[in-house]
Structure of PABS domain-containing protein:
Amino acid sequence: MPSTYTPPSRIFPVAVVVPALLSLSLVIFAHERTLVPLYGSGPTTYLLSSIVLVAMQASALHPFHIPLNRNLLYSALTLTLAPNATYWVGVWTSRRKNPLLGPAITHAIVLGPQAFALTTFLFNTSKDSSRPRTVYRLLATVISWQLTLSLAHQAWSQTGFLRRISDSQIYLNLACLLYIAWIASPFTTTPIQDMKKQPLTTTMTSGAKSLRLVLFAILWCLAHSRLTSPILPHPLPEPYTLMDYPLRILSSVQSNTGLISVAEILPRTTQPEDPSENSDVQSVRYLRASHSILGGVWMNDKIHVIDDEPPVTDSSGTPLGDSIYATFVLQEAVRLVNSTSNQMQEGLIIGLGTGISATAFQRHGLVTTIVEIDPAVYDAARQYFGLPDPGPDRVFLEDARAWVSRRKAEIDLTKMHTPFDFVVHDCFSGGGVPEHIYTLEFWNDTKSLLGSEGIAVVNYAGMAKSESSRMIFYTLLAAFTQCRAFHDLTDANGLSPDAYHTSFINIVIFCTNSNKPLMFRKSRKSDYLGSPLRRHVLAALESREVNLSSILDADDSQRYVITDKRNPLGRLQEAQGHHHWSLMREVLPDINWETY
């Protein structure tokens, strides 16, 4: 007998489809937000959409009948388990140190069943209605998949109030609604009745339903706190200190670029029982963005100064030591450029981090303008890392591409003097990049904000001799006439020829359009600001130079130039992002990444 086509109204009743799609999109959003601090955005999203599609297609194609009331219960149960399952399975897989396989296993174990159950609502749940043809189910699944991913990645991620709602609240509120719908459904069959295909002859009275709802409300209130995950509330109302590990979380907030937190590893009073807990890392405060360290400073007994110079203090007066990363100090070498005729007076910072270089420039008396996309990063730098107030109209919390374009338009319109002597561009995070601010068009716009001898200082993190590094260098040389680069390794002479291919390092690139060769003077005592790290890095600047000729060896350099129309940088950085994840797991013990 030929199969009959079921009208769309029977396949997709709006009262069922819309809540199901909204719920699934929120589940994907919460699942991804839970895992990004454990794995970073690249590894987390690498196979997520594919696994969701497979689960949805399995739900659409399976031959079994799942009644509506039964699926309400199944969906509620999967969401009830989701807060702890997502966190603990993610923790367990991340400890296996595989940034590709770990997230995939977590998606399959935790998110797969949720996507399967919620997708079941999209199709007929009545035994009397025939299922639509396979082709229509597949088509409907793909459309639903695209809609839910769009909502999860575009709508919900830009919704401000969701940043103040925990992932546990999202899961458990949806589960609560599903339990209520299950209890209030017209009838409820038991699994035994359904297997025996016995007709249900009684319906639940309104009084019985009310009693069950009251009992459910009591049980739900008693169990709710135990069903939530151990993830901290965001924003964190007060500092949180672990009981059995010397770690204090000072601040943690969901912001427009993800989870931004400030943590401090306290001095140890005893040696750890587990050797993997890296007892050498202590007395340090760091700024974390998801699974990346944006910067940090040494604390307590690891604060050292030279010439009795008082250390920088945070907003509460707590002394702060040197930066844990030398790359920020290396950026300050722009002050040592002596091939320009004008004395430097004003600088632009794109990408703030902990504000190490921005603070140093202000201590040297330079007027500093800051462009930072994430307000939480700026707030953390001001409160916890000693960044001084740059002054009125000197802080812009927005995307750098839009800000630079707007300033260029103002300069072109008013013919005003170009305001900046140098720009420091440091936007690498988690092994990835905001690729739209590395194109030739962006650098050409940025040049318009610099004088004729202005200098662009660009931080690059990755393998020195990689496809992405060649793209960065060739694009900069397409915008500027000359560039020099320096590494931040502890050993100034530590960048061996083999390390160009294998070591994940920070390289600071200095570029200019000046007619004079780009030269740096010798550092002196006043450049160090009482910092042993500055003396160590700046005094050996020449020894840190990267051999660009060994990197810029392509026959066709034009194909490496990044433009708005041709920009593979993000895709190329994904592979290095996986390597960066592994490096971060070596820098800090697992428990530091698992507490957020």
